[in-house]
Amino acid sequence: MFLFEAMPWYSVLMWFVVLGGLMLVNELARMSKWVSILLFLALPIVLTIAVWPNTAGEGSSVGTWFHWVKVYSALAGCLGFMALRYVKGWDKNKYVLMFPAIILAVNILEAVIRDFQVYRLNGIVDGVMMIGGPWNIMNGIAGLLNIITISGWMGIVVSKGRSKDMIWPDQLWFWIIAYDIWNFAYVYNCVSDHSFYAGAALLISCTIPAFFFKKGAWLQHRAQTLAIWMMFTMSFPMFVGESKFAVQSSHSETALWVVSALSLAANIAVFVYHVYKITKHKRNPLKVEVYTDLKAYKAIAEQN
């Protein structure tokens, strides 16, 4: 196959199990503050002390600086978003409202740095096959454009009702799709043999809820599914790389070129549109929302 080696039926079935499991646990956490505290505070403390030193140590495929930084930054996002959702008055504090944009930008930047780093790597590194090349630079640039086009955090609100979701109306479908393509390209470039699950399934697990379950809450969905996945894969690193369910990348340079080219093209398109909206309506993206005139924005704002 183009992106991956042959996928047996049981791996395809497991892909759907992973997708469904991530969405289910995300929904449970979304609906209950106490489930969230258990998942994103109590459980990581136990795993940090009792599990990860043994499963994610040096030599493991998840024993790199990136995996350790990623799991804690994802957890920091989850806890910060919970504080914004549940601590009275925080959703009205302009400095607190900057946190989602900052943690999102930091997470993207971590991956951009890793893409640039992998450009010079070839062969087995930390138990993962690396094929560095110009595609890493292309996708790193796409990631930087993705950061630049983050906008509208000052318009974040907390939805009414039981779930008290963190709603970001200015974070619309075109930015999310550009992010998804970029992030899949990053995973495919830098941990290619994990990308069947950590790329495709993980990204879809937060995009489906954002488009169909709770619109406007993409970043909340993303942080929670990412944290859940990172805790799982650091506890069971063999699953994505060496278990019977593992699906290996094709390691095709053509595939690497294609996914990174799509990522760069998508993020250039969003960047051009972003600049167009800013200049046309004379909006300062550091002070006001950019897409308030769009139907998709209005629909999210009206619902919340």
Automatic annotation (TrEMBL):
It comes from the Bacteria. InterPro entries: DUF5692. The keyword Metal-binding does not apply. Keywords: Membrane, Transmembrane, Transmembrane helix. The chain crosses the membrane at residues 6-25, 34-53, 65-84, 96-117, 137-159, 171-188, 194-213, 225-243, 255-276. This is Uncharacterized protein. It comes from Paenibacillus vini.
